[in-house]
Amino acid sequence: MKALVYGGPGSRSWTEIADPGIQDPRDAIIRVDAVTICGTDLHILGGDVPEVAAGRVLGHEAVGTVVETGDGVAGLVKGDRVLASCISACGICRYCREGVYGQCRGGGGWILGHLVDGVQSEYARIPFADLSTYKLPEQVGDESAVLLADILPTSYEVGVLNGRVRPGDTVVIVGAGPIGLAAVVTARLFSPAHIVVIDKAESRLQAAKMFGADTTVLAGTDDPLAAVQALTGGLGADVVMEAVGTPQTFELCTTLVRPGGRVANIGVHGKPAVLHLEDLWIRDVTITTGLVDTYSTPKLLDMLVAGQLDLGNMVTHRFALDEFAEAYDVFADPARTGALKVVLSR
């Protein structure tokens, strides 16, 4: 089969490799029907995730059809259409028993496209398949479903829920990429008074407005602090979400939060950021970090079926499965291409 193989920082290729096989009784093999590229994949290619070894198949977000199951798989059969989650769960360790699947100590967590071969390929092995896939109803299309593999649960759990968004809050989201836009969509479920989105690309700010942002701030032109203070009477935001993953954006978030507010870091960071405790210690600010656990995926899927989540405009570019080179180029240059999410399908 062919797969998108990481060759080290800055190197990737769509190349022929061996077909995946069952390695553990709890494995399943899926035919990949639709797959997308994540900002985390760009961080890997940038050298920000050194645990990823050269030769690894990238990708952790896919919809596929089960073609084979191990003897230990009880809930799937050949032909099932499934969402492959970005997080794998052994179901046995202490963290899995607490629903904290991202911290699984039994061989799971974020492993696809990280510690084991991922899903940017024609076929993929899914470890712990019973707990790491979700059967999809017919009315949910591949494009909508694949957004529930990572960006929707990540934004919802690590951003909205960790940030404890409440009705009437002023919410600021720094970064209007797919994660930031998913944070807009899921924050709106809690009826905040204002959602402010900050980004340096005008096209992405327009997308933020389309998804429900009330106010947008063009970084580098507008003053984010002045804009937030003007909206809040000088107080600052109740919740600020970091959805980029750079030292500058994290440090900006800590300046925008009100005393007693919450900063929820969602972005993947490859470099140290300064934590200005000399300013923060007296302000009762809560800062959270996290890797998604995907415990919310079934609820998000129910909301998608019920029409409570409108994801129709999130996918901006579509490619055939063998067009990964072009898809990566488009996704990595959103200022030029206007890309939000790209989907590659059979």
Automatic annotation (TrEMBL):
Pfam families: ADH_N, ADH_zinc_N. InterPro entries: ADH-like_C, ADH-like_N, ADH_Zn_CS, ER, GroES-like_sf, NAD(P)-bd_dom_sf. Its cofactor is Zn(2+). SUPFAM superfamilies: GroES-like (SSF50129), NAD(P)-binding Rossmann-fold domains (SSF51735). GO terms for molecular function: oxidoreductase activity; zinc ion binding. Its EC number is 1.1.1.-. It is an enzyme of class 1 (oxidoreductase). The keyword Zinc applies. Keywords: Metal-binding, Oxidoreductase, Zinc. The keyword Zinc applies. Residues 7-344 form the Enoyl reductase (ER) domain. PANTHER family: NADP-DEPENDENT ISOPROPANOL DEHYDROGENASE (PTHR42813:SF4), ZINC-TYPE ALCOHOL DEHYDROGENASE-LIKE (PTHR42813). Belongs to the zinc-containing alcohol dehydrogenase family. This is Alcohol dehydrogenase. It comes from Actinoplanes digitatis.
